[in-house]
Fold this sequence. Notes:
By secondary structure, chain A is mostly beta strands. Chain A has no helices and eleven strands. Chain A has strands at residues 4-7, 10-13, 19-25, 31-38, 42-51, 54-57, 65-66, 76-78, 87-94, 104-105, 109-113. In chain A, strands 2, 4, 5, 6, 9, 10 and 11 form a seven-stranded mixed beta sheet that branches. A four-stranded antiparallel beta sheet of chain A has the order 1-3-8-7, with no helix packed on it. The N and C termini of chain A lie far apart (36 Å). The mean pLDDT of chain A is 93. In chain B, strands 2, 4, 5, 9, 10 and 11 form a six-stranded mixed beta sheet that branches. In chain B, strands 1-3-8-7-6 form a five-stranded antiparallel beta sheet, with no helix packed on it. In chain B, 34% of the residues are buried. Chain B has no helices and eleven strands. In chain B, strand 4 (30-38) and strand 5 form a beta hairpin. By secondary structure, chain B is mainly beta.
Amino acid sequence: xxxxxxxxxxxxxxxxxxxxxxxxxxxxxxxxxxxxxxPGLGLRQIYYSMNVEVTxxxxxxxxxxxxxxxxxxxxxxxxxxxxxxxxxxxxxxxxASGRLYEQFFGPGxxxxxx
Amino acid sequence: xxxxxxxxxxxxxQEGRISILNCDYTNSMxxxxxxxxxxxxxxxxxxxxxxxxxxxxxxxxxxxxxNKSAKHLSLHIVPSQPGDSAxxxxxxxxxxxxNLFFGTGxxxxxxx
Lengths: 114, 112
């Protein structure tokens, strides 16, 4: 089944404790992206990757890191999480960047930083 | 500053009737618009899109209308079905851009 998977789905952590949210897709997609969803703000893009070893900042990259060492994986790293990073996170992928290509979203990771 | 706005957080409609979800945008550089649908505990899924060179796009029960002069688009669902109950996000993209700007979502409830 073609899908985007995220792990963990739920995470409660404490301020300053490094964490990684994994994202994997099995569709051989080149483009991958991370979003966060917050009440009253919709979904905002954090980082995106056009291909392996190519990443770039989205609208709200502060406090986050990403890497794209393999085509299928695009982990989101919070080196020192803070309470304002409590949010619902979505990973997405598409065959390529651009409007011709539908973005497929993962099921989301709900992160709480205490 | 929110560039894509959905001013109605929720909407309830009787089964069989028309659902109209609205979206406004502020950036005149946006030239492609999408609607996504989201069920609880799932990620958003693409529903329908429209390019700024059109004013209407139809796909089955779903039609999106674009009014560029008003910077407004709407999604019509006819007839509405209980399975349409979900949160609907409007999104916009500018030419050459690599990201989507999303609205805050409207929760649609279709009452059987």
